Amino acid sequence: MNIYLLSDIFHEGVVNLPQIKVTCKDMNINLTSYEALIFTSKNGVKAIDNINKKWQKIPSYSIGEQTSKEIKRLGGKVVYTAIDSYGDNFACEIKEKLKNKRVLFLRAKKIISNLENILKNSGIDIKSEVVYETTCSKKIALNTKNKKSFFIFTSPSTVECFFKHYKWNKNYTAICIGNVTAKALPLNVSLHVSKIQTIKACIEFSKTLIKQN
């Protein structure tokens, strides 16, 4: 049995099958007036680091541990990491903390959550900037030889691109990083949702399921 990770991030014991390509925007952003930054992915952190290094001095609100690690690695200041790694719930967690602050949400071109609207409706002075976009990468040859295989989906975008490239097989099982990703899958797909929203947790969960088979 193989575990396929639909990402280019290396992890021991899995086969990488990246589905999306991230392109950072070439743009200018004046950060002078902002008192808080919101990040919902590592890609947003990498993008703003290429645009304006002054972001490092502004308190950052992060959707998860991996994003927080990237903020710290690039010299930023994490003041809050989400308890729940879903955009809508994250917005509810931070709305009180952001009162009377001018906030910038650094985001992808295509997003699923209503984070920005939730905060606006809560009276938060928030603006968003699209700093990167994701597109489907080129198809990579996949030959599972009809063996039972586990595929780790890390976002709705990976779901979309995977099904552009491949047909689902009855011997496949999907492991989803969260409920939003799971909802993006077709109804006929056999799936499990990881209890913890990290790639590492998805891999460990897949290994547990393999042992049970």
Description:
This protein has 213 residues and is α/β, with parallel strands linked by helices. The chain has 2 domains: 2-21 and 138-212, Rossmann fold, CATH 3.40.50; 29-133, Rossmann fold. Helices cover 30% and strands 26% of the residues. The protein is built from 7 helices and 11 strands. The termini are close together.
List keywords for this structure.
single chain; 2 domains; six-stranded mixed β-sheet; 7 helices; 11 strands; five-stranded parallel β-sheet; Rossmann fold; alpha/beta; 213 residues; elongated
Structure in a nutshell:
The chain is an alpha/beta fold and 213 residues long. It has seven helices and eleven strands.
Q: What is the CATH topology classification name of the largest domain?
A: Rossmann fold
Looking at how many chains there are and whether they match, the oligomeric state comes to single chain
| Mean pLDDT figure | 95
CATH class wording of the largest domain: Alpha Beta
Q: What proportion of the residues is helical, as a percent range?
A: 25-40%
Topology:
Layout: E1 2-5, E2 15-16, E3 20-24, E4 36-39, H1 42-51, E5 59-62, H2 65-73, E6 77-81, H3 87-94, E7 102-108, H4 115-121, E8 125-136, E9 149-153, H5 156-165, E10 172-176, H6 179-183, E11 191-193, H7 199-212
Parallel strand pairs: 1-2, 1-9, 4-5, 4-7, 5-6, 7-8, 9-10, 10-11
Antiparallel strand pairs: 3-8
Helix pairs in contact: 1-2, 3-4
